[in-house]
Design goal:
Blueprint (H helix, E strand, L loop, with lengths): L1 H8 L7 H20 L5 H28 L3 H23 L1 H17 L11 E3 L2 H9 L3 H6 L8 E7 L4 H17 L4 E7 L4 H6 L13 E6 L2 E6 L15 H7 L11 H21 L1
Helix pairs in contact: 2-4, 2-5, 3-4, 4-5
Length: 286
Amino acid sequence: MAIQWLKSTGVGRFIRIYYLLNALAIATYLFARRISLLGVDVTKGEYIQDWEKNSFSSLGILVLVKSVRTLTVDAFVSDVFMYGKSTILLMTFFMDIRLFSWYLILFGILFLMIPQPFYEGPEDIEYLTPSTYDDLVAGTSQNATKTRKPGEKQPKWLVEFYASWSPPCIHLEPIFAQLSVKYSSENLQFAKMDLGRWPRIAKEFNINIGGTTKQLPTLIMFEAGKELGRIPHIFADGSVARGRYRKADLIKAFDLDHEGAALSEVAAKKARKEKAGANNKDKKSK
């Protein structure tokens, strides 16, 4: 029962090995610090304690700021791990260079061998390949042309182009999944495509997937294969706008609450209430 609840809510991802090992690695500092300070003279001990107070006070401020400005819980936890490990490296550098070296190796192994896992929870998302993109989104394949009924309208598609190695893509996962569950309908479908596997698709849509790119993730709204809009926006001179990926920003940017985009059951009810309210006002004014 508990396992089923963890999977259905997405909370279970926080007991994956990435989170457990990083938390354990940071917690070992308490033990390592105690062992390292044994036999240290009083003056050096006081000096290290002063550094600890300043370092952990700064860490607390950073965590507090991040808790307010963070995109998702996944992003927040990842940042806490990064700041915590940076603080430990700083402290051990002044405390004991050998301890610093061991932590540097440990954190390097964790970074290279255990990446942050993707979101696992409720979603209504189609995972695309180039062929299924042609079938479902573009509607240009022979199969799509044959199966489409005369006069049948294609749904709009909100597609997330991502790379599995990109932290911003991982951090967006919970938001995109929640939007797909709430707004998927006959009028709007949600999909994802891994540009790490299909780099030619990145070139086709003018998405830079280099290590320092600001275009991952890229979200594009399609209608009958035509691009209606994207985040982040690309200007005429080739420069890229800063992407805003908060849930409220995405809902507003792609107009998910109104008839211009998805009319899911939730959004449709809201639209009907607004329309009924407007009609009542008109009757009263008459």
